[in-house]
Amino acid sequence: MTKVAVVGCGVVGSSWALVFARAGYEVAVYDALPASVQQTLAFVRTSLESLPPDGGGSAEDVDVVCARLRAATSLEDALTDAAYVQESAPERLEIKRDLYQRLDAAAPPHVILASSTSGLPASSFTDHLVHRERCLVVHPINPPHLIPLVELVPAPWTQAGVLDEAAALMERVGQSPIRLNREINGFVVNRLQSALLGEAFRLVEDGLCSAADVDKAVADGLGLRWFFMGPFETIDLNAQEGVAQYCRNLGPMYYGLAKEQADPREWHAALVETVEAERRMLTPANSLPARRLWRDRCLSALVAAKRRVMHEEQT
Amino acid sequence: MTKVAVVGCGVVGSSWALVFARAGYEVAVYDALPASVQQTLAFVRTSLESLPPDGGGSAEDVDVVCARLRAATSLEDALTDAAYVQESAPERLEIKRDLYQRLDAAAPPHVILASSTSGLPASSFTDHLVHRERCLVVHPINPPHLIPLVELVPAPWTQAGVLDEAAALMERVGQSPIRLNREINGFVVNRLQSALLGEAFRLVEDGLCSAADVDKAVADGLGLRWFFMGPFETIDLNAQEGVAQYCRNLGPMYYGLAKEQADPREWHAALVETVEAERRMLTPANSLPARRLWRDRCLSALVAAKRRVMHEEQT
């Protein structure tokens, strides 16, 4: 497989175009708005020019990578010879249903149709297709050219081979795929984030500490290990004999905490205002764009550093 | 304040000795077992010799830093001229209660008595003291010489000025203090970890994905931002207008997930065995010590990289 199609040229689709082109794939780029396609091409060039090779950019010449991108003139044109379609259209059910009907009609049955959706299960917009068995969710963490994780989520009718092929492709383009065994609200990533955010808001609402202190607890504490080990490996290494011993020792303590946390709460207006006010003290509204650039620079530099450290450890 | 006492020379106390000596403080080190004191002194030297200055070591000469450490011959000797005591004794209530009685009797009333305890509220082992108002929890994430976060948790009788002073000291020695307004089970860090672990175990128990895939979801996804931004800043920058807009858009989705997650579960033996088996496939039991060294090398190198990136961003 050397040709892929990127359908939908928003922020997510643009980053996907970079991911595939950086990895050597020919990428047909399509959006209903031709101007969006041009924005994607410009985004890829600008990113490659500004990012270090191991921090989202490429070791290859920028022109060489950009030459792999082609502005498709229609959906059908984008699908020409493509073996994989990464769709990143707006998150509206009717849009996806119509789009997948067109994709299903235009793409030969072996072509994988992968959706970037973060919220819609594939079953909700592929049930009506002739070849729905080649559809799945391949959900990135934005932006995928900096953050490798992707969640592969099958519909009930997705063929196992389609998951295998999508996972293999993700590995080849340098992403880190995980596989869910079935559809579930929020997939894995947003469920984990939900659990952490739920407790974060609870602590602030109950007056235990400030939002800024919750942020510190993660950025100066828990997050340092979670940057390169997940929660299971973290606790596995925290007991002499491994995770089973950890669970024997601390399971009752965590069960006690879990019972205290089994209290789902809406984020009420007053609470949200408290957090918003705290955040605006630290980053005023007019500084948000600059802070996002700061975040992206940090992310790129730290991803590059992580690659170097992990590479040195392996060699 | 230039003199501190480190009481209790296990893994945590040893790391504390390094933190204070590295920052220029004279440190009296005491443990009921003199051999433990010697182990602490050796640990500090070995660590300084092996760690980069910005990754847990020191830019100063190793001998100069080590000369700030003194093996105290008794608890009373350790307290001589100390203005701050960091206690890291075993996590048993009777031990702490007896120890604090001795500390309270031997240390002048202005001396701060800070406990490294991760599980016992200060009120449980200081209620009987004459000068209990100078006691609090200063809970590190192990090891504090690599992980800056510390949680300051007052007992109901802890003076506000004691919290201020402890926070200022922590800042001066390069740690990152957060302040809880009152005692709560698990403090902030373990409550956040509990929320994430609860969902991690739930996903595995329900057959959604493997433990390894949960780890990837964090280490290759969520953890990349949490390494340098907390959960609140992460979502604040993820909506054009900031966190209030994020909550308006996604609050209902997260409330839906929170209701699905409001299901506190014990970590039953079968589940723990599943996770243990998965972990032992990746890291066999006899490789655990080597993997811990790997973890510590990664942690040190990544902390150093983070310091450099953050420093460059500030200048």
How would you describe this protein?
Two copies of one chain form a homodimer. The mean pLDDT of chain A is 97. The first copy, chain A, is 54% helix and 12% strand. The two termini of chain A are 30 Å apart. Chain A is α/β, with parallel strands linked by helices and 315 residues long. Chain A has an eight-stranded mixed sheet with strand order 3-2-1-4-5-6-7-8, sandwiched between helices. Chain A is built from 13 helices and eight strands. Chain A has helices at residues 11-22, 34-50, 62-66, 75-79, 93-106, 123-126, 160-172, 189-205, 211-226, 231-237, 243-261, 269-282, 288-314, and strands at residues 3-7, 26-30, 69-71, 84-87, 112-115, 135-140, 149-154, 176-179. At the A-B interface, β8, α8, α9, α10 and α11 of A face β8, α8, α9, α10 and α11 of B.
Compile the SSE list and pairings.
2 copies of one chain form a homodimer.
Chain A: E1 3-7, H1 11-22, E2 26-30, H2 34-50, H3 62-66, E3 69-71, H4 75-79, E4 84-87, H5 93-106, E5 112-115, H6 123-126, E6 135-140, E7 149-154, H7 160-172, E8 176-179, H8 189-205, H9 211-226, H10 231-237, H11 243-261, H12 269-282, H13 288-314
Parallel strand pairs in A: 1-2, 1-4, 2-3, 4-5, 5-6, 7-8
Antiparallel strand pairs in A: 6-7
